[in-house]
Amino acid sequence: MANNYLEFSVFIEISDVTAKWAKKFVGSPEHLEMLRAQEPDLYDEDEELYLPFEFDCIDGGIWIYDEESGDAEFAAITIQRILQKEYQFFEENLVEDPTYANSIVTLSWAATCSKPRPDNFFGGIILISRKEIRFQPYAAWIKTNSAEMIEQL
């Protein structure tokens, strides 16, 4: 028997004001309902909601990660909401510098297996800004690049 994992880890620099807000928001009923609304097919309406990744506030920002079976898409949605809040605090003059709110966060993820089974290892990357989330799974990159390589043969 083998175990499959989906792992990721990202540190996001944000202001102390936003970090305090994020500490209250992440994992709250409001946050979990927001995640359910984004992906209604993943949760039954009567299913208990849970935070599908780990979250810690660390000096200078927040750390979002998972060592086993995290949900990188929900992590990306959460990161985007935090960046949006950082920008809102900037507009309200609670944060002086918009640098963090205007940053692009890169979240890379890996799907691994506890045994060396073929096709059980892959991953992808997610680019996150306060306005947009872009996903790039490895399969799309392989399809594009293998087609180009075949043309050259």
Helix content: 25-40%
Q: Main sheet?
A: 6 strands, antiparallel
Total DSSP E strands: 6
List low-pLDDT spans: none
Large-scale geometry = globular
**Whole-number count of domains:** 1
Beta-strand content estimate: 25-35%
> Topology as H/E string?
EHHEEHEEEH
Structural class: alpha+beta
Mean pLDDT: 88
Helix count equals 4
Rg, Å, rounded: 18 Å
Whole-Å distance between the termini? 40 Å
The largest sheet has its strands arranged as 2-3-1-4-5-6
Layout of helices and strands:
Layout: E1 4-13, H1 16-25, H2 29-38, E2 54-58, E3 61-66, H3 72-91, E4 105-113, E5 122-128, E6 133-137, H4 138-152
Antiparallel strand pairs: 1-3, 1-4, 2-3, 4-5, 5-6
Helix pairs in contact: 1-3
Care to describe what's here?
The protein is α+β, with helices and mostly antiparallel strands and 153 residues long. The chain has one domain (4-152). Helices cover 36% and strands 27% of the residues. The protein has a six-stranded antiparallel β-sheet with strand order 2-3-1-4-5-6. A hairpin with a 2-residue loop joins strand 2 (54-58) and strand 3. The longest helix is centred in the middle third of the chain and has 20 residues, at 72-91. It is globular, with a radius of gyration of 18 Å. The protein starts with a strand and ends with a helix. The model has no long low-confidence stretch (mean pLDDT 88).
